[in-house]
C-alpha cells in the first residue's frame, strides 16, 4: 500500500482549558506557579493535554491506542508496524494559554517516510499541529512519530541495570533538578492526556509484548518536565521555541536528572539523563 493519499489529511479538535484541568496539570507536576487571580496563564506544556483523541474504548487496539484503518474518518494511516513512539517535536510558542480559553486544534499529516534502521523497518510520520486559544494562534508544533516492528519475545524479561551508587556527573550543567517518576505520576499524566497506551500502566504488557524491563515514562511527560525546568529558572511562559528528541526510554521509579546550560549559539541546551548518565532526551530552547 502507498501512503501518499494520507499526506495532507487533516483533523479538527475542540476543547476548553478549565481551571480544574489546569489545577490538575500543575498538581501532577508539582508546579510552583500561583494559580490565584483571574484567568492565570498556564505553564508551557499544557497543550499536550488538550484536544485529545477520544476514540470509544471498543475501538482501542491491543496496545491501548485507537485502532488504525483505511476508512475516510481515520486520521493516522494504518501502517503495517504496530509499535509507536513519539520521537521528536519542534514547538513554537506564540501566546500563553489562559484558564477558561476555548481551544481549537488542526492536525495535518505533513509527511510519511519509510526507513530501515538497526532494528528493521521504520515509518516516520510527521504531524503538524496548530493550536488556537480563543481564536489566536498559541502553539505551532511539528511532531515526529515513529512506527516500529513488534518486539522480539525475550525470556527472561529484561532487567534495568542497578543504578550506580552515586549520581551521574552533572558538573557541566548550570540547571539541575532530580525527579523520580513514580507510578502515581505516570497514572496521573495518562489521565491528563487520555493516553491508554499500555506501556505506561500495564507492567506485564510492557515487559512481555513490547520488551521493556518496566513501565515506560511518557515522552511528553519528560518533555514537559524539561519545559518546567526552564520555566522554574526563567519564569512562566518564557520560551518561544522548544525542540526535543527522544533518545532512549525512561522507566518508572528510576531517578530522572533534568539539566540545562547556555547553548553556544544562544538559548539553552536541555537534557534528561538516567541514573547511570544515559541520555533520555535532548532539547534546545530559547
What are its keywords?
Thiol Ester Dehydrase, Chain A, 286 residues
Structure notes:
By secondary structure, this protein is an alpha+beta fold. It has one domain: Roll (Thiol Ester Dehydrase, Chain A), CATH 3.10.129.10. The protein is built from four helices and ten strands, in the order βαβββββαααββββ. Strands 1-3-4-5-2-7-10-9-8-6 form a ten-stranded antiparallel sheet, covered by helices on one side. Strand 8 and strand 9 form a beta hairpin. Helix 1 runs antiparallel to helix 2. The longest helix is centred in the C-terminal third of the chain and has 16 residues. The protein is globular and about 50 Å long. The mean pLDDT is 90.
Q: How would you name the CATH homologous superfamily?
A: Hotdog Thioesterase
Q: State the helicity in percent bands.
A: 10-25%
Number of domains: 1
- Side by side, the strands of the main sheet go 1-3-4-5-2-7-10-9-8-6
Please state the structural category. alpha+beta
H/E element order:
EHEEEEEHHHEEEE
- Topology, number of strands: 10
Shape: globular
Unreliable spans: none
Our measurement of the CA-to-CA distance between the termini, rounded to an integer number of angstroms, reads 41 Å
Q: What integer value in Å does the Rg equal?
A: 19 Å
- Count of DSSP H/I helices: 4
Amino acid at each position: 500500500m502507498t501512503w501518499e493519499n494520507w499526506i495532507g489529511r487533516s483533523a479538527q479538535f475542540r476543547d476548553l482549558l478549565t481551571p480544574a484541568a489546569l489545577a490538575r496539570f500543575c498538581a501532577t507536576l508539582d508546579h510552583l506557579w500561583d494559580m490565584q487571580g483571574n484567568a492565570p496563564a498556564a505553564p508551557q506544556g499544557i497543550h499536550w493535554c488538550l484536544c485529545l483523541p477520544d476514540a470509544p474504548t471498543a475501538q482501542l487496539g491491543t496496545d491501548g491506542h485507537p485502532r488504525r484503518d483505511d476508512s475516510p474518518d481515520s486520521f493516522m494511516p494504518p501502517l503495517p508496524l504496530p509499535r509507536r513512539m513519539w520521537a521528536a517535536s519542534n514547538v513554537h510558542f506564540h501566546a500563553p494559554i489562559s484558564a477558561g480559553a476555548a481551544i481549537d486544534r488542526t492536525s495535518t499529516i505533513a509527511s510519511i517516510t519509510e526507513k530501515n534502521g538497526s532494528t528493521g523497518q521504520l515509518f516516520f510520520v510527521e504531524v503538524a499541529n496548530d493550536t488556537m486559544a480563543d481564536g489566536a494562534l498559541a502553539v505551532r508544533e511539528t511532531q515526529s512519530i515513529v512506527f516500529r516492528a513488534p518486539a522480539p519475545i525475550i525470556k527472561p524479561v529484561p532487567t534495568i541495570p542497578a543504578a550506580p551508587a552515586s549520581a551521574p556527573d552533572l558538573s557541566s550543567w548550570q540547571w539541575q533538578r532530580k525527579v523520580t517518576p513514580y507510578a502515581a505520576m505516570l497514572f496521573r499524566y495518562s489521565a491528563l492526556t487520555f493516553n491508554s497506551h499500555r506501556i505506561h500502566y500495564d507492567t506485564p504488557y510492557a515487559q512481555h509484548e513490547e520488551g521493556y524491563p518496566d513501565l515506560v515514562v511518557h515522552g511528553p511527560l519528560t518533555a514537559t518536565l524539561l519545559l518546567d525546568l526552564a520555566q522554574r529558572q526563567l519564569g512562566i511562559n518564557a520560551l518561544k521555541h522548544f525542540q526535543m528528541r527522544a533518545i532512549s526510554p525512561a522507566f518508572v521509579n528510576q531517578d530522572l536528572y533534568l539539566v540545562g546550560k547556555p547553548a553556544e549559539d544562544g538559548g539553552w541546551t536541555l537534557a534528561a539523563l538516567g541514573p547511570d548518565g544515559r541520555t533520555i532526551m535532548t532539547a534546545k530552547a530559547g
